[in-house]
Amino acid sequence: MKTLLLKKEEVSRLISMKDVIGAVEEAYKAFSGGQVDQPPYIGIHLPSGGEIDFKLGYYKRNEVISMKASSGGFPDNPTVYGVPSGMGTILLFDARTCALICVMDGSLLTGLRTGACAAVSVKALARKNSRKITSIGTGNQARMQIRAITEVMKIEKIHAWDHTQESLSKYKADIESEFGIPVIIAGSAKEAVQQADILITTTRGKGSLVEADWVKPGTHIVAIGTDMKGKQEFDPEIFRNAKIVNDSIEQCTDKGETWHPLNRGIIAKEDIHGEIGEILLGRKPGRENDEEITIFDSTGMAIQDNTTSYKIYQNAIEGNVGTFFEFIA
Amino acid sequence: MKTLLLKKEEVSRLISMKDVIGAVEEAYKAFSGGQVDQPPYIGIHLPSGGEIDFKLGYYKRNEVISMKASSGGFPDNPTVYGVPSGMGTILLFDARTCALICVMDGSLLTGLRTGACAAVSVKALARKNSRKITSIGTGNQARMQIRAITEVMKIEKIHAWDHTQESLSKYKADIESEFGIPVIIAGSAKEAVQQADILITTTRGKGSLVEADWVKPGTHIVAIGTDMKGKQEFDPEIFRNAKIVNDSIEQCTDKGETWHPLNRGIIAKEDIHGEIGEILLGRKPGRENDEEITIFDSTGMAIQDNTTSYKIYQNAIEGNVGTFFEFIA
């Protein structure tokens, strides 16, 4: 029995953002199409403040089971131990036999597939003439969002806001050099939000950052930062008259941004338009006019890891990349 | 960052049953000593009837996190796909950094550490002059139990019973040739049970197999077969006057053999003597006289995989066995 081993550097050249966007679209369709089994994830909190999580997903049609271990929150790793502050490992199993077909480094995967979410939602929900992105938050995931969205929409300007000037300046320099798209540093979050065709939040904040009356009609909102209880980025009033789309209604109403307006009674569960997978499957409409505000609440799902890592595996097999190892002779 | 890869054949020569018994003792002590974090396991049931489970354990003192993926119930694997009907993979992480330090084949681990349970319980709870084992059930795990117990107790005779004559004859031939211990095939379960100094059940049965009045005073019972809801091997009346020891009180009262007498009101939770780890730590007595019936109910814990696989890893490093692979350069 042969297991393919893939290093981080191999993974990085085996997959393009275009591939990831395709894989994430497939994941959403599979999920809303009843092709997915993904039990609640399990994790361990270390005394140092770091964390390691294990996310399991089964894609029935493809007969692939994935398990992603991913760690984060170890700031001393690089200096004290000479390893990254967050790492990841993915196991792929052939669901017909449960044979281990691949062990790959998974450090890059979460960032890539989370970026791709934005692009998928932009295709389904943003105005076709969207040219301006507003980015609230300027860290790694904010960059990944731009990388993904520019694959599917011609972006001409980015308005950015963050808590620290240093992070903003670095973001401006990096984005302008990587994409040649001018970045305007906003004087306030409000100023930035008012400019948005597409509004992205990646702050992982713990309170409302974006007020409802800042958001102009026709804006598409990509709410990335809230993926667990206690996190919040939006004034829940924004949800009152918006078209609300979730990656997983079950997850978003439990721990996503969508939980907040539900909890406050601003919306009822029936006010959620649907899951992005339902839109991609053609079961529900996406954007219906240029005036509506659309919100895509993304909490992240194991099936995204599954389809993305399997695509990497397929590309490796096709391109003869990687090292085979026989755990069982 | 280097990750050690270990094949099944390497794992098999890296660990002795003596090592496993030591590792399982350490696991029990760690668990009852508050050194363990092991979240509920997650799994996927495949349409074919097979299953794959993921068990996560963190041993705080050692700073080691283990994740065991183990599959079973794929009878067509050998003939149709050329792979075993059940397989396993273990990941070990350094808990200080969450770096992946080892990927090893885990096919042998569950069998070994489950066998070792019996030996640990026999040391703590069986009469020192126990010479006769009764084995109800004659499959792989029944053999593993003998392999483990003979490491800690001089066994002179084995009485065996099972549903099928064929399985019994094969067990007799195998055990007599491996250990030189005579195996007596019993005419009935009752006849076998009445002979026991140590009574082992490994049938994974779904109803009472062993009646209370068959068990003679002084018997030590190792209840292995019941590790999930719906399974049962004993008349719950056996628990009424016995010294009841669990691997994990939380697990055994939820899904072990101990659940049945609790559910029937035959015992209360306070009647459970304690956890085996408490006995090993010297916090509670083991067997106190030659007349009491002792029951060890074992449901299996992730921390047993943790300490056992880490011992294998240490032996590999010491003995220069295995292959290093750099997932992250």
From TrEMBL, chains A, B:
InterPro entries: NAD(P)-bd_dom_sf (IPR036291), ODC_Mu_crystall (IPR003462), ODC_N (IPR023401). It comes from the Bacteria. Pfam families: OCD_Mu_crystall. Gene3D superfamilies: NAD(P)-binding Rossmann-like Domain, ornithine cyclodeaminase, domain 1. This is Ornithine cyclodeaminase family protein. It comes from Aromatoleum toluolicum.
